[in-house]
C-alpha cells in the first residue's frame, strides 16, 4: 500500500539527519576530535525508525511488516553480503602486508621530478585496489607528509593530492562501499558502472595530473623499503576479474582465498587460525555500514509506503525545472539525481549513507526520465564522492588534516581533483556525455 504524496512521511528522515548532524556540530563546538563520528549513524537512526512507525497508517503489525520487508529487500541483503566479503578481503590483504607492498612498489617507480602527479597516481591505484579512501589516506598521508618535509612542496598541497587520489579510487573501486551501494540500488553491474565512471573520472584525473605537474617543482624521495610484489597479486586479481565481468561474489572470494594462500606460504606466523581471525575482523569492520544499510532499507520502505519519497521526487523535479532543465529531458533527471545525493551528503557527511538514502529516489527518477541505471549509479557515486572529499567535517578531510596538523578548512582548497571532477561531471550532464549504449538483451 502506497499512500498519496505527503511531506510528513519525510519527518523521520529529517529527525535522523538532525540527530546525526546536530550531534556532530555539538561535539565540534566542544573541540572533540572527529566530531561527526561520535554518535554512530546506526544509533542515530533508531529514533527516526520509531517515529516512522508511529506516523505510519494501518495496524501496527502492518507497519512493522512494511519495515521488515524493506530490511529484507533483495538489494539490501545482496549489498550486506558484498560488504562482508569486501571487509574480509581488505582485512586479509592488509594482514599479509599487501597494502605496504603496494604503496612501496608504486612510490618506487615514481620519477623524482613527478612527485605530486606520481603521488596522486599511487594513491589512486592503492585506493582502487583497497576500496577504502580512509584506509588509503591512513597508509599514504604519512608518506606524503614526509615528502613535503624533505622537499619544498607545500604541505597542504601534498596532503590534498593524497585526499584527491583516495577519492578517485573510492569512486571507482569495485569493492568500495559507495560502488556497492550505488550499483545495487540502481540495479546495474559493477563493471558497467566502472566503465561509465571511468569516462568521466579519467579526463578529470588527467587535468589534475597536468595541474600537479606544473606545481611539482623539484622534489626528491628518500629510500623506500623493497616491495614484495607477490603480496600485490590479490589486488591485481580482484581488479582483473572485476573488469572482466566476473560475478562480484566470486571476485571477492577469490581475493580472500589468494590472500590467505600467500599468507600461509610467505608470512611468518600466519596460520589458518590467523586467516580465520582476519576474515572475522573484516566482517567486524563492516558492522556499522551493514547495520545502517539494513535499517535505512526499512526506513525507506516506510517512507515510500506513506508517500514521502513521491513528494521528495516532486520537489527535486521542481528544483530541476527551475534551474532550466526541460521537464521531459534526461538532463532534468540527471540533475535531480546529482543534486539530491549532493545535498544529502552535505547533511550526513557520509557518502555511502547519502547513496543509501537516495537510492530508491534515484532509481524512480531514472525510470521516469529514462536515465540508464549505469548512468544513475555513476552520478550517485561521483557527486557523493565529490562532496565527501571537500567536506571540512567529513572523515577523509578530518583524518588527513589531523595527520598533517593543518586546518581542515584550509586543506579543502587543495584537494584539486575533487574540484575538477565536479566540473567534469556537470559538463557530462550538460553535453550528455559519455553516450550510453543500450545493452543487448
Portion of residues in beta strands equals under 5%
Shape: globular
Question: End-to-end distance, in Å?
Answer: 32 Å
Report mean pLDDT, rounded to a whole number. 83
Radius of gyration: 22 Å
Query: How many helices does DSSP assign?
Result: 21
Helix content: over 70%
Structural class: mainly alpha
Question: In total, how many domains does the architecture comprise?
Answer: 1
Main beta sheet, described? Answer: none
E-strand count: 0
Element order: H for helix, E for strand: HHHHHHHHHHHHHHHHHHHHH
Low-pLDDT stretches: none
Secondary structure topology:
Blueprint (H helix, E strand, L loop, with lengths): L10 H19 L11 H15 L4 H12 L2 H22 L2 H11 L6 H16 L2 H18 L4 H18 L4 H10 L3 H27 L16 H11 L4 H19 L5 H14 L1 H19 L2 H15 L7 H19 L2 H18 L4 H16 L6 H10 L3 H5 L3 H15 L11
Helix pairs in contact: 1-2, 2-14, 3-14, 4-9, 4-12, 4-13, 4-14, 5-6, 6-7, 6-8, 6-10, 7-8, 7-19, 8-10, 8-18, 8-19, 9-17, 9-18, 10-18, 10-21, 11-12, 14-17, 15-16, 15-17, 16-17, 16-18, 17-18, 18-21
Amino acid at each position: 500500500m502506497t499512500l498519496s504524496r505527503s511531506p510528513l512521511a519525510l519527518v523521520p528522515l529529517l529527525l535522523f539527519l538532525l540527530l546525526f548532524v546536530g550531534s556532530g556540530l555539538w561535539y565540534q563546538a566542544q573541540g572533540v576530535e572527529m566530531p561527526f563520528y561520535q554518535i554512530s549513524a546506526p544509533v542515530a537512526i533508531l529514533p527516526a525508525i520509531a517515529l516512522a512507525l508511529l506516523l505510519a497508517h494501518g495496524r501496527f503489525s502492518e507497519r512493522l511488516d512494511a519495515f521488515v520487508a524493506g530490511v529484507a529487500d533483495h538489494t539490501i541483503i545482496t549489498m550486506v553480503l558484498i560488504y562482508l566479503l569486501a571487509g574480509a578481503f581488505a582485512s586479509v590483504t592488509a594482514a599479509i602486508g599487501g597494502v605496504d607492498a603496494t604503496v612501496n612498489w608504486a612510490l618506487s617507480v615514481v620519477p623524482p621530478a613527478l612527485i605530486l602527479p606520481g603521488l596522486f597516481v599511487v594513491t589512486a591505484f592503492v585506493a582502487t585496489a583497497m576500496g577504502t579512501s580512509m584506509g588509503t589516506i591512513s597508509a599514504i598521508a604519512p608518506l606524503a607528509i614526509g615528502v613535503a618535509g624533505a622537499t619544498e612542496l607545500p604541505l597542504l598541497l601534498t596532503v590534498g593530492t593524497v585526499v584527491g587520489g583516495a577519492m578517485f579510487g573510492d569512486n571507482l573501486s569495485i569493492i568500495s562501499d559507495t560502488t556497492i551501494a550505488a550499483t545495487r540500488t540502481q540495479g546495474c553491474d559493477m563493471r558497467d558502472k566502472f566503465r561509465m565512471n571511468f569516462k568521466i573520472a579519467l579526463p578529470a584525473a588527467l587535468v589534475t595530473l597536468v595541474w600537479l605537474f606544473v606545481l611539482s617543482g623539484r622534489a626528491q624521495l628518500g629510500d623506500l623499503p623493497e616491495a614484495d610484489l607477490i603480496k600485490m597479486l590479490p589486488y591485481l586479481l580482484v581488479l582483473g576479474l572485476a573488469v572482466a565481468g566476473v560475478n562480484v561474489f566470486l571476485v571477492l572470494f577469490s581475493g580472500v582465498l589468494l590472500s590467505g594462500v600467500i599468507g600461509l606460504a610467505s608470512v611468518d606466523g600466519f596460520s589458518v587460525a590467523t586467516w580465520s581471525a582476519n576474515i572475522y575482523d573484516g566482517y567486524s569492520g563492516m558492522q556499522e555500514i551493514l547495520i545502517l544499510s539494513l535499517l535505512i532499507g526499512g526506513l525507506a520502505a516506510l517512507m515510500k509506503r506513506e508517500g514521502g519519497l513521491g513528494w521528495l521526487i516532486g520537489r527535486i523535479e521542481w528544483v530541476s525545472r527551475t534551474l532550466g532543465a526541460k521537464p521531459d529531458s534526461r538532463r532534468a533527471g540527471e540533475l535531480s539525481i546529482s543534486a539530491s545525493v549532493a545535498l544529502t551528503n552535505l547533511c550526513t557527511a557520509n557518502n555511502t549513507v547519502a547513496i543509501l538514502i537516495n537510492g530508491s529516489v534515484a532509481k524512480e527518477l531514472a525510470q521516469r526520465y529514462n536515465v540508464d541505471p549505469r548512468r544513475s549509479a555513476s552520478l550517485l557515486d561521483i557527486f557523493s564522492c565529490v562532496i565527501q572529499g571537500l567536506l571540512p567535517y567529513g572523515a577523509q578531510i578530518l583524518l588527513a588534516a589531523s595527520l598533517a596538523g593543518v586546518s581542515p578548512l584550509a586543506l579543502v582548497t587543495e584537494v584539486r581533483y575533487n574540484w575538477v571532477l565536479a566540473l567534469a561531471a556537470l559538463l557530462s550532464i550538460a553535453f550528455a556525455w559519455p553516450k550510453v549504449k543500450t545493452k543487448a538483451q
